[in-house]
What we know:
By secondary structure, this protein is an alpha+beta fold. It is built from 3 helices and 5 strands; from the N terminus they run βααββαββ.
Amino acid sequence: xxxxxxxxxxxxxxxxxxxxxxxxxxxxxxxxGFSYDEVEDLRLAIDELxxxxxxxxxxxxxxxxxxxxxxxxxxxxxxxxxxxDIAPIMLTDLSRVILTALVDEHDLVTGPNGPLFRLLxxxxxxxxxxxx
Length: 132
């Protein structure tokens, strides 16, 4: 992988499809040399933020994810494209504590085109890059 590669994924905004967001993040992070613990932290953070977008039962519409791969870090941006109006989104206090412990940066906001999130996870391990 080179600096500033990106991967895009669009999935239905239902819990059974959001696992693809976790699998994609884990696969990319593993390829980038993230440790097992760092990959698991990333998977949990994706879960928290996708849940923040869609709620426990999902929504009618899609979630679009953009994975930005840079040397030593992975940025994941998620955008909800929903067919119905949604109540204002927010993270619980517990979710904020969990995310702060798991990733280097995170945010969940209501944007002009719907709810969106962003997270940044830096590789802190010294694992070698796979495939290079």
